[in-house]
Structures are given as C-alpha cells and as structure tokens.
Design brief:
About 65% of the residues lie in helices and about 0% in strands. The longest helix is centred in the middle third of the chain and has 30 residues. The mean pLDDT is about 85.
C-alpha cells in the first residue's frame, strides 16, 4: 500500500521542512559560495524553498505516471533517480532568477547543497521514517 497523493505531498513538505532545513543549516557554512554567511543562507534556503514548490508539481506528475503501474509506486531506485530531473529543473530556476535569494549561486555550491539535502530526505523517507510512522504507509500518509 502506498501513500495517497495528499499523503505524498504532505510527506515531501514535512521532510523538506525538517530534514531539509536541518541539513541546510549544517552544510551552508561550508558551501563554496564566495559570499557572506547571511547571503549563503539566503541562497540555500531559497533553493530549499524552490525544491519544495517545484517538488509539489513533480509529485502530481509522478502520481499520474504511477497510475499506469500495477503497484502504483516506483521502485526505490527510481525514487532516488528522480533527483536528476528535479535537480536540473531547480538549477534552471536558480539560473533564471526564480529561486528567491539564490541569484549568482555557483554551480558547485548548488550541486553540493542539493545532493546532500536530496540524499538526506530520500534516506529518511525510505529508512528511519518507516519505523515511528508505521501506520503512515497504510493510511495514505495520514497519521490516524
């Protein structure tokens, strides 16, 4: 049984708001931005916000595509590989100036930040989160 679309959207936002925020706070001081710490945090949180907004659209698209699969879900590896298309779209948004505060963010800093946050969120969703939120898997993302 897989989460409903609403549960997937809620899970994505929850994980980005918790795990994504924590990892962003930890990694931003060591990112090669060449900017002040305040500007680096603005850029990092702008990217995190953009990942959340664009990710909601991707979840809707993924959900639609999954309806063609018998089990209505991706294998775990496909979930990891979605980082490629989502990362590319977020990077294009950063380059276009659509990510708040991320103007002029170097590609290396973006790649490091995105990879750490994406991997941390993916590992949490597919590992530790399944233990305390066992019922989440059987109730479409709802806690009760």
């Amino acid at each position: 049984m897989v989460p409903t679309l609403a549960g997937r959207l809620q899970t994505r936002l929850f994980l980005l708001a918790t795990v994504g925020t924590l990892l962003t706070v930890l990694i931003t001081p060591v990112l090669p931005t060449g900017a002040s710490l305040g500007a680096a945090y603005r850029a990092s949180f702008g990217v995190l916000f953009t990942v959340a907004v664009i990710g909601l659209g991707w979840e809707v698209a993924y959900h639609g595509l999954q309806q063609f699969r018998w089990e209505k879900d991706w294998p775990m590896l496909f979930g990891l590989l979605t980082a490629l298309n989502e990362g590319l779209l977020v990077w294009l948004a950063v380059r276009a100036g659509a990510a708040p505060g991320a103007d002029g963010l170097p590609g290396t800093a973006f790649l490091l930040h995105f990879a750490v946050v994406w991997l941390g969120v993916w590992l949490t969703a597919n590992g530790p989160m399944r233990v305390p939120f066992l019922r989440w898997r059987f109730h479409g993302g709802r806690l009760i």
